[in-house]
Please model this.
Amino acid sequence: MKKAFITSLEEKVNPRHSAILVVDVQNIFCHKKSAVAKKGIDLSMPQKVIPNISSFIDRAREKSVKIIFIQQDINAFSDSQVSKEMMYRVGWKGIKHGKELKWSEELCIKPEAQDLVLRKKKYSAFFGTRLDSILKSKIDSLTNLFSSLSEELTANQSELAEINKRSFVKKYGKENGQRVASGRIWKGMTTDMLKDIWGKPDKITSNKYSYGVYTQWYYGDITYFFKNSVLIDWEQGTEKKN
Model:
């Protein structure tokens, strides 16, 4: 009886129906002089793995494995909701035109003639894209493989979210831990809770009085007001939250 899915590692990596996807290995995400690095984001880890990725690709080519580079359209990346939040947190407005944009989009690893380079206009390369169409056109075993991987990734993401929630519950107690895990902001939360949700603020100012220490944390145009490290209010622009 013919198997309906791939089970062994040897079958999964067979060059007849496998490929290596190299996603977003571009100057903007891995070069020390990129606009992202200039905003203080640590790119040392991507820089360290580039030689390993390059060596791995070379060995795969020797085995006739198809190499597919996914190249992010930077303007499209800047317009996605996920990247808007990322850029908002570091106060970056993106790159819209000129030589910097062209350089930022260039791949850190040079493709060879037989490689396939796919530009993506969305944050994800796997849904409603040319890569999506290519994968769907392949044989059933490849479709089943990616379906299996997708289910595994979804399960892993759910598991990570649960681990994250348990960590916050252990740190802050059940009620507050669940609030932090869900990204909720509320009066009475602490500075540590806000940092776990939003990350490090753009700026912090503090004033000490006989009746307490008042601290302001700034994230873009949102300001959070703390008294003795407990949130008492916040405002966005000139609109104060009640």
